[in-house]
Amino acid sequence: MDMSDIAPWLQTPLRRALDALTAGRLGHALLVCGPDRIGKRAFADALVRALLCRERVEGMACGRCRDCLLLAAGTHADLRVIGLIENDKTGAMRREIVVEQIRELGAWFALTAQRGGAQVAMIDPASAMNANAANALLKTLEEPLPGRHLLLLSAAPMRLPATIRSRCQRIALQPPSRNIALDWLRGRGHDEALAHTALLAANGHPGLSAHWIESGLLDLREAVRRDLDAVAAGRAQPLDVARAWVGDEHARQRLAFAAELAVDLQATNLGLESRPGWRARSSGDAQALANWFDAANRLRELLDTPIRTDLAVAGLLRDWRRFVAA
Ligand SMILES: [Zn+2]
After folding, report:
1. Which residues surround ligand 1, an ion (CB under 5 A)?
2. pLDDT tens figures, 154-166
3. Which of 153, 242, 300, 307 has its CA 20 to 30 A from that of 62?
4. How many angstroms separate the CA atoms of 142 and 180, rounded?
5. What is the 177 CA–ligand 1 centroid distance (Å)?
6. Are residues 16 and 154 in the same domain?
7. Residue 246, domain CATH
């Protein structure tokens, strides 16, 4: 494999990590953080390949040795990936990484590597560890063993205990410049105008833009924007819009988009950005918008509960009409 196999905005941080590995400066525990879909897993996978390959070429995995082949086949014995798994008793997916998973990892790290090289574990998403799991991990972090590498992946590193964060080398992945993002999206076959719109909506985040375009979510976001416009202008009734919003499997995503659009409006309102669209009725509505953002996010959490979500969303949209002029 070579650098061109990985997204351009991951190349510099990856090169830095590989150089540190070659120089023996790479930490035993890394915290790879960045927003969803920025490429944390692709970055970590490339690093894992380099950690396990024993015939590295310019710091990168050779792709041909026995370790590389085992890894590519998904059967390398010295890699563990810990994530959200099913609950044995109920068969449902767990929402947390539990202490047993981390204890098992500690025990595994204490064994000798089967292939005689490094042992690598990835925890993804690390912020899903519950308090007991995080405590158990602390023990592993406090007594690092030679040749053992731990990669924690997280979009929300602040949710991890400070004691864990402070023991990890942090690698922050960020969106690239607008031009690099645009090039990358074009390279994936996306129409230039659409790529522009998506990047604007996703704050320059190319991975998220691609996801929104490819999954149709960009259209959904535009529809939410139009609905909010129509409600603000009095062209649509809050209850009608609310019923449509909660009527299918996209309810959660619509509320997330609505909350983000409120942040956009807030930014415009404060003169931070000038985006065409809405304006608040008065500049004194900043607090009201912040509250609206919180309310939209809270409502998202309530979608799984038995409350009448259409009525709750209608209330939210009535507030929107009060704060926002179309
Ligand atoms: Zn190799």
Report:
1. 53, 55, 61-62, 65, 68
2. 999 999 999 999 9
3. 153
4. 40
5. 32
6. yes
7. 1.20.272
Which tokens go with 304?
């799984």
DSSP states along 1-54: --GGGS-HHHHHHHHHHHHHHHTT---SEEEEE-STTSSHHHHHHHHHHHHH-S
On whether both 138 and 257 belong to a single domain, the answer is: no
Give 13 Cα–ligand 1 centroid separation in angstroms: 21
pLDDT per residue over 26-70, tens digit each? 999 999 999 999 999 999 999 999 999 999 999 999 999 999 999
- Judge contact between 126 and 154, C-beta under 8 A: yes
The pTM (predicted TM-score) of the whole model is 0.84
**In this structure, are 127 and 49 located in the same domain?**
yes
CB contact set of 133 (below 8 Å; sequence gap of 6+): 96, 97, 98, 99, 101, 102
Cβ–Cβ under 8 Å, residues 148 and 174 = no
